[in-house]
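1st attempt posting a full record on here, be nice pls
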Amino acid sequence: MTPVACQMQSSDSESVRPVLILGLGNVLLGDDGVGPALLEMLREKYVSAPEVECIDGATQGMALLSYLTGRSTLILLDAFANGKAPGEITILNKEQILAIAANRATTAHEGNAGELIAAAHLLGELPEQVFLIGVQPENIRTELGLSAKVSAALQAACGCACEIVDHATPQLLSKPCA
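the predicted structure (as tokens):
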């Protein structure tokens, strides 16, 4: 399976958009699909922003490494099980993500996401600014759709992502985020 880009790349193959929003997760596993759900909301907000690229990375893990090259900011959207109440949002920065990346594997793909970040760091391809916007899942099992508690967190998590994008790209500050 190939990652799905939300927008077409520019005709200049050397041009890379500075901000990458990467949705991770498996929509067939209930709340593990929160990353792609958030990505869909953000794609609508930034569809015409030349500085932002949205990619649905699904569960591709290391296959996403080349998408990180040349970026200044990476925003990961994912289910993040850390013992909080279902639907609670956690925001981690690059140092925090790297500190836990090698030691976590709590969702169907999370180990691969951690390996992706660690590999990009090792290769010097990790963007200067990296953030994880994680939503505590309630159910990760074979089912379509998000639980009510995770669905209720989508708007707030989307707002968090917009704040990060706005900070990374001041020229987009006039775009509404919530």
